[in-house]
Batch of 3 targets.
Target 1
Amino acid sequence: MSDESKKPVLSHIDAAGQACMVDVSGKESTVREAMASAMLEISPAVLAALLADGLKKKDALATARVAGIAAAKRTSEWIPLCHPLPLDWVGVVFSTPGQGQLRIECTARTTARTGVEMEALTGVSAAALTIYDMAKAGDKGIRIGPVQLETKTGGQSGAYVRARGNENK
């Protein structure tokens, strides 16, 4: 195998090496779904206040959920080569997998010619940043990451499921 054949294919780079929007006009519209996650490391006391609605700004999780949904709907305004998509549904959920840990998942679904990975990633990022904003008075050292795609279905490239053990890959 030559070095040339090992080059990764980048969908948004044309033959001349310039950034471009992908032409999806020839693709069929199908149901597509993607789920992305973000992990926040936060002091246990501040996390307890978040979960008990004990912050001064109140109801941080509901605010973060709405921020995630709103951001997913406007992804193409933030990511310049991203297609605007008619989203059928966006959901944001929270869980606490360990002490001082808040996991956020954002799932986006559409019937379109291109996938919704960027919408899920944008939504989960906005939700995480909203939590940071609302909790920073109690813990400025909140750490966000990794932010990553977990699953995607639909489209020509088929399904993707992040393999366990590849949380940072």
Target 2
Amino acid sequence: MRVLFLSLFVVLADQISKLCVKGFSIPFLKIHIDGMSYAETHNFLGSFLRITFVENPGMAFGIGLGVTSKLFLSLFSAFASVGIVYYLYKVRNERLILRIALALILAGAIGNFIDRAFYGIFFGYAPVFFGKVVDLFEFNFYPVNLFGFIIDRFPIFNIADVAVTFGVCLLLFFSRKETPQMQQNDSAGTIVLENDSDVKKDEEN
């Protein structure tokens, strides 16, 4: 379960980056960060990578949702996070890459869940579970014509989105990579069993 430290690190990085962009104040600790105005943007690596403050009321990468769907998504994220923690415990002795992938997905789910569940209350604009997810990373690139649509930028995202995406890609890549090897191992095991059966028959004869 040590991979949960990876989840904790990603969640902290995600929340710190979001709070620094949105701005917050903790008077008794004498902490005050002004943050950025909504839609304010700053070049980070020229115009290729920008820090742009927007808030997403729906899913990852700006996908919108209705009120009921938003509540369902918030609750689903909470239950899914608990489920992933339980599954991580079940596979605690499995391969490290599997546990890392699950830990990243868990971190991403928790990171965006915190926004949806508590940011509305913390910043005073919505009840519990109806907060908005803070997005901040904006990639711009050379325009590409894809099926008649001109694409010149990637939807604004956050660290939690990256963690989920990378975790899912790890699962897909390594599960596909393992399948042929597992089939070969099964075939080898079958051959060994068949050979054992032949030996037993010869001994009986």
Target 3
Amino acid sequence: MNTEFCDIENELRDINNMVDVFAGQVSICKEYGCKGTGIGFGEFLLYEGKIDAYELESALHYQNLEHVALGVLAVQERHLNEQQLCDILDCQRAEGGLFGEIAIELGFLNEEDVDALLKMQGDTHIKIGEVLVLFGAISRDDMESCLQDFHASV
């Protein structure tokens, strides 16, 4: 498979994933007080009237743009080369499964590598509340107060 085709495939997959994530996160569950409803903090803020739909959409878009995919991180950290990344993504597309598990099965990474990459990925993930504060949609004090209310309700 040539590298250009792999790049285009990856971009299309990223766009599809972004649409799926956004669609899943914007559906509002009005019964957020029930345990286990799966409502996210952004949805909670929207339902409580602390932010509007445009602010949530913008924050989710920014959050997705700033998210570093595990495969990209693995290449950046020189755990994988580009061909190995393409091989893993091809297997993932054909058979499904988690990127890290497939990389281990193919012998490209070990469990310690995947754990380290997942930790790095988590450390760089920007929380939706932080994005909303950054954008000025909500004050830090309001965000922290709402976060306490959110955790008490779920």
